[in-house]
Amino acid sequence: MGVYNPATVPFYAGIATSTRAGAALTEEQSLAVSTVYACVYKIATSMASTPLVVLEKENGITREATENPAYALINYQPNPVQTAFSFWEYIISQSLMYGVGYAVIERNNQGRAESITPVNFYDIEPKNVNGQIMYKVRGLGVIAFENMLVISNMCGLSPLRVQRDNIALAKAAQDYGSDFFGNGGQMTGILSTEQPLKAQQVDAVQQQWNQSSQTSGVKLLPFGFKYQPITVPPETMTFIETRQLQAEEIARAYQVPGILVGLGTATYDSVEQQNLLYKQQTLLPWAKRIQQEVDRKLLPSFERPNFYSQFRLSDMYKTDIKTQADFYTQMLQSGVLSINEVRDELEKNAVSGGSTHTVQVNQIALKNFEDYSEKISSEQKLN
Question: Per the CB 3.0–4.6 Å rule, which of 174, 247, 358, 377 could disulfide with 35?
Answer without folding.
Answer: 247
